[in-house]
Amino acid sequence: MAEAMIVFENVTKRYQGGQPAVDALSMSIDKGAITVFVGPSGCGKTTSLRMINRMVEPSSGTITVAGRNVSQEPAARLRRSMGYVMQSSGLMPHRSVLDNIATVPRLNGVPKAAARKRAAELLDVVGLAPVLGKRYPSQLSGGQQQRVGVARALAADPPVLLMDEPFSAVDPVVRDELQQELLRLQRELAKTIVFVTHDIDEATVLGDKVAVFAVGGKLAQYAAPEEILRAPANDFVASFVGRDRGFRHLAFNAADAVRLHPVKMVQSAERTVADGGPGEWALVVDADGRPLGWSSPRDGTGLVPGGSLFHRGDTLRRALDAALSSPSGLGVAVDDDGRVAGVLKAAEVLALIEETRQNREERP
Amino acid sequence: MGWFLANSGHVFDLAGQHLVLAILPMVFGLLISIPLAQFARQNSTLRSVVVTATSLLYTIPSLALFIILPSILATRILDPLNVVVALTIYAVALLVRAALDAFDSVDDDLRQAAVAMGYKPAARFVQIDLPLSLPVLFAGLRVVSVSNISLVSVAALLGIGNLGMLFTSGLQRDFVTEVVVGIIAILVLAVVMDAVLVLLERLLTPWSRASTKPAGGASA
């Protein structure tokens, strides 16, 4: 049983006598873990988050952080002890990136030079080049701005990070990168992170635990993501988790046992007699053996773009997607250097899925 | 031209007085308008009352104000203080609305971010709201600058030293050259003041001209 860091006790928030935005919420958030609040709009997930640092005051009930009742703490000091990342990066446009990151240490009275030095280190921690430190936020891409937002939240090394839909305004590719980056950071920093999103996929990727909120501010289910996908507590959770939950659930099973087959590789999409001529799909690779795309059995179609790549250690979901998204039906597996390691077949991935399921039934 | 060269010292002298009478009310106007606008932002009723009341101030004829003020302020009619007070009233009339627009122009997400990071209200206002509202505030200041420089000349009718005296004396002596020099001098003054304000704004808001093109240097 993990140690509790943030505890909600019977917390209700009502706006001007209307329906409760958050209704008698009681939950305990684990220390050093990522807890995701997920739900449709109007479910009270953001309100709940904002009550932790008193951006919103509860109508009744108490919230404690590390055993201390937040309503007893001076609001400004409480907020400085928690990193906050919001949807729009919330970076100050009139301050350089470094000065933005240094904000909370400066508020805490750290001298400018020391705060900037720390900010420069954090720039590196979130994977941004040092040259960006002198730029203004408007000179950064959306993804870079969100990274700066995370760096700013980490600047005073707070034990708690509150993240309010931080990645929902960036494109899917960048979002995927930012999610992986957050997981990497969390492995090093082990902060208590409360993360709000409306995206169940994001919730299951990031969350050690996921709290599903229903409209009206009621907690519908609070469990590990794997359990929420496998055993939704009620119809609301089942419908919110959605139609693809069976497929998504595959993301919790490693595909280490999947078989890799050799594949015919060519250096150019233009087939010659020396290549054996047309007749089967061949993988086009560069001089180092990294996949570029496919050469079709039909002549003259040129390079056909490949599907998603399967890396060692990936999940069954990735394995199945690699096979299904490939034009040849063969999922391309690559090694750590990005070189082709072999191909996998959808039918074999499905067989492995079935095997995994049976194993689970035998050892519940 | 000959008259101007012969009297340039006099003209520059008047221009200097003119400038002081125009700039002081801008400064005082700002010092009054910024807190007033911030106060008016509390709720919409207060806001419309303040905006309407201050806008009405601008409809008071300037000559009337120059004549009434001495009896209110217990000053002599020739006291330049009357002009400074009168023009401060006009500056407030224009600047309260400009300051309200300026504070409105600050993205509310940024205020929320500042609060979430642990800014206290006063520090947030000075370090976040105020600098971010400068571009809109300066647009208002430029209007006040032109308005003040033009209004100061009216005070010449009362005999208070400024470039407007070139009009009164030129008219009395039926000497058109002096009037033309006065007009040109006031125009030049207005243009110079505007340029100074633009320059000042550029110095204070280097961030607003930063290229919005995302820069390279790292992924994502």
TrEMBL record, chain B:
Q: Where is the ABC transmembrane type-1 domain?
A: 15-197
What SUPFAM superfamilies does the entry give? MetI-like
What Gene3D superfamilies does its record include?
A: MetI-like (1.10.3720.10)
Q: Where in the cell is it found?
A: Cell membrane; Membrane
One GO biological process term: glycine betaine transport
Q: Which PROSITE patterns match?
A: ABC_TM1
| Record membrane topology | Multi-pass membrane protein
Query: What coarse category fits the chief subcellular location reported for this protein?
Result: membrane
Segments spanning the bilayer are: 20-37, 49-69, 81-100, 149-167, 179-200
Offer a single GO CC term for the protein: plasma membrane
Which Pfam families does the UniProt entry name for this protein? BPD_transp_1 (PF00528)
Keywords, alphabetical: Membrane, Transmembrane, Transmembrane helix, Transport
- Family under the similarity heading: Belongs to the binding-protein-dependent transport system permease family.
**What PANTHER family does this protein map onto?**
GLYCINE BETAINE/L-PROLINE TRANSPORT SYSTEM PERMEASE PROTEIN PROW (PTHR30177), OSMOPROTECTANT IMPORT PERMEASE PROTEIN OSMW (PTHR30177:SF4)
Protein name per Swiss-Prot or TrEMBL: ABC transporter permease
